[in-house]
């Protein structure tokens, strides 16, 4: 497998840490390196980091399905309890699963599928489009929208806004109440 190793800064448990990543491994990193027609990157650094953060939690939470037999227990071995063997998971893995679920819920059902397929299962955009019977190049746009929503979730922003701008909550005075009926 081709390797393209680089060091990036990633937020882990509230602090920035340098980590090495293989840019050739993930379809997300390949998309991050592509430039648009205007010469700017298609994905922002924040969107890329949000996708990699989801992938890290997905991996730490042991959410990948098994592709082979479980050799840890015999046929007559101990009995597994909990869904997906959660009784055997560490606190860190359970916390990772919780973070993945919160992120998926924040992105919503319309965008979470393409996000999980590309960021977590490392499927290429063409594969996602073929499996879902989507038009060509549609997965790229939906992934960008999903990554934007994921970045807002991680940084607790309510929506796309410029730094320093304020969101209008209501037009009336503080004691204003609308008339019903």
Quick summary:
Residues 20-155 form the DUF6456 domain. With 181 residues, the chain is mainly alpha-helical. The chain is built from 6 helices and 2 strands, in the order E-E-H-H-H-H-H-H.
Descriptive overview:
It holds the Pfam family DUF6456. Residues 154-181 are annotated as: Disordered. Residues 20-155 form the DUF6456 domain. InterPro entries: DUF6456. It is a single chain. By secondary structure, the chain is mainly alpha-helical. It has one domain (5-65, 84-154). 43% of the residues lie in helices and 9% in strands. The protein contains six helices and two strands, in the order E-E-H-H-H-H-H-H. It has helices at residues 27-33, 45-60, 91-107, 109-120, 125-132, 138-154; strands at 5-12, 15-22. It has a two-stranded antiparallel ribbon with strand order 1-2. Helix 2 packs across helix 3 (91-107), helix 2 (45-60) crosses helix 4 and helix 4 (109-120) crosses helix 6 (138-154). The model has no long low-confidence stretch (mean pLDDT 80).
| Beta-strand residue fraction | 5-15%
In the sheet with the most strands, the strands line up as 1-2
Q: Separation of termini?
A: 67 Å
Please trace the helix and strand order, writing H or E for each element: EEHHHHHH
Which descriptors apply to this entry?
181 residues, 6 helices
Question: In terms of topology, how is this protein built?
Answer:
Blueprint: E1 5-12, E2 15-22, H1 27-33, H2 45-60, H3 91-107, H4 109-120, H5 125-132, H6 138-154
Antiparallel strand pairs: 1-2
